[in-house]
Amino acid sequence: MNVMLPAAEKAATTTETVGTPWLNMAIFAAFVAVTMVVVLRASKSTTTAADYYAGGRSFSGTQNGLAIAGDYLSAASFLGIVGAIALQGYDGFLYSIGFLVAWLVALLLIAEPLRNTGKFTMADVLSFRLRQRPVRIAAATSTLCVTFFYLLAQMAGAGALVSLLLGIHSRVGQSLVIIIVGALMIAYVLIGGMKGTTWVQIIKAVLLVSGVAVMTLWSLALFGFNFSDMLGEAVSVAKDPAILEPGLKYGLSDVTKIDFISLGLALVFGAAGLPHVLMRFYTVPTAKEARKSVVWAIVLIGLFYLFTLVLGFGAAALIGGERIMAAPGGVNSAAPLLAYELGGSVLLGIISAVAFATILAVVAGLAITASASFAHDIYSNVIKKGKSTGKEELKVAKITVVVIGIVSILGGIGAQGQNVAFLVALAFAVAASANLPTILYSLYWRGFTTRGAVWSMYGGLIISVGLIAFSPVMSGAETSMIPGADFAVFPLSNPGLISIPASFLLGFIGSKTDPYKESVEKQAEMEVRSMTGVGAEAPVQH
Amino acid sequence: MSEQPSPAEPTAEDFQVAQRSPEFQSLRSTHRKFVVPMTIFFLVWFMLYVLLSIYATDFMSTKVIGDVNLGIILGLLQFVTTFGITALYVVFANKSLDPQAQDLREALESGDYARTRGPVVGKEA
């Protein structure tokens, strides 16, 4: 989700802050207090595995749609996209379109059949008619990789956000905040399970979308609700008409152009392969509600990106690129600076708290996905071969959450000041390459086999991670993770253009050459179930 | 949903008979006939937009209304088509998919589906 934060390092070294940090902290504390109450209430009805992983399948399509938006719209996409539009103009806008259009893949091809054929995790669907062990292990591996990279990005992003919004600039202070974020995440998930996590996401989505809506109307009002005037002002402040035209960021060379096509592919195919998004489709009672939740998600996410378009150009017009770059946090400070410009410390405080709430909600969603994948796929189905009780599985899931929490706190502290965009590119590229082709094949292609699934998933995973490792994101450029070294033999920052088609191809070849014939009965069952919803997991009655 | 007696669990044979039934074939082809062209359409339209933005920058910079240029308008059109396809799909699914899926589901859950429809006829290629 992040376009965000190459400026993270910069943020850690600057020392001034806008607004009133204690006010920001107070509003954030209020959010934590309110959500904790909600999570505690949700914990009373969280007893079984279906409660813990899928919120008892009791959420309505509308509620789940809000939660999906809450899961998907990270702080990074809020701060990052507003900043990208404010500075690079039109090219920042291109990003947000990919993030939205991607949801049509989920709506048309994935949400409903997934709800009809699975229970808790992505692997449930993939292993439905294929051999359990190899497929589950592969699916869990890619789930854990995607969620880990994504989680790391969010945690490191939290540190950067702190320096910007709370005026904490020391490395120790930022580490402390990462520890707090991690501890809160563990608490939310342990206490409230999927139900509590979902409520946190719903509250956050409402706050984020309404906060952004208010800022949008406010900035438009300053231009008499004339968007064209706002654009004109942005041009005159930037002293460069190119801000309205494509090409400022991606038009630099042939490589950047192809890189953008690659990124576009990864965005469109990645969103519907993100495990924490897929898992949300199990929290509703029927496929029809799953459809409704995607519709709500599309409406909210679409509105959000339309608002960020206005906010980005609003920031360009009212604040200007120079002041944004000079502020602590650089490009990511465009939205907070605009809030301060419009509504002073109070609005800045609210927007900062919303940005924090956003990080919390996203990391909680990621943690529960990773723990479900480990406990349900690896422990229960592979290690215990399906013979563990729900209680044992739940215990393992809870232990996993604590482990994941601790690992991501340590990782987040270690990744401070790193190029966060690197981690997110990794997560999206892996989701698009390792997960999506296999999901589509197993739902829609009768001839798909276990070998096809395993080749496609491991192939997609290895190729995408490998290409990133040898790309300019890792080495050879000023903004690389290891700036001193240069082993970037692959010119593109995003591997999607190669790794996604490769994964589709591997799935095809693997299936065609597989000597083992898959069960015809299971294929019939899966196809009929996926289209009709026969015997789909029912909601839990409390 | 909670008032009804628990539905019968269909057998492997039921599923195979159902998969070959004209009702299911019709449901599946109704679904594909909508979903496949729509997916191709939005992917092509999105990639076209991306390609135009990258390779036809002059064209995209054409001013249309005040400072609003073609690139911004086509970008906003991406939002419009996304919302539009979503709305179309919901209407289509409610009207054409749900009733068919529900009939099949009820038939399968009433039990003895395969026996009342005849057994699996041979193993087709």
TrEMBL record, chain A:
Membrane topology, as annotated: Multi-pass membrane protein
> Where is this gene product found?
Cell membrane
For this record, the Gene Ontology CC terms, alphabetical, are: plasma membrane
One of the Pfam families matching this protein, by short name: SSF
Q: Tell me where on the tree of life, at the top rank, the source sits.
A: Bacteria
Q: Locate the transmembrane regions by residue number.
A: 22-43, 64-87, 93-114, 135-153, 173-193, 205-225, 260-282, 294-319, 346-375, 396-415, 421-443, 455-475, 487-509
Coiled coil ranges: none
For this UniProt record, give its keywords in alphabetical order, as a comma-separated list. Answer: Cell membrane, Membrane, Symport, Transmembrane, Transmembrane helix, Transport
GO MF entries: acetate transmembrane transporter activity; symporter activity
Q: Which family does it belong to?
A: Belongs to the sodium:solute symporter (SSF) (TC 2.A.21) family.
Query: What is the name listed in the Swiss-Prot or TrEMBL entry for this protein?
Result: Cation acetate symporter
TrEMBL record, chain B:
Q: Which residues cross the membrane?
A: 34-56, 68-92
Keywords, in A-Z order: Membrane, Transmembrane, Transmembrane helix
Classification via Pfam families: DUF485
Q: Which InterPro entries match?
A: DUF485
Q: Where is the signal peptide?
A: none
Q: Does the keyword Membrane apply?
A: yes
Protein name per Swiss-Prot or TrEMBL: DUF485 domain-containing protein
User: What is this organism's lineage?
Assistant: Bacteria, Bacillati, Actinomycetota, Actinomycetes, Micrococcales
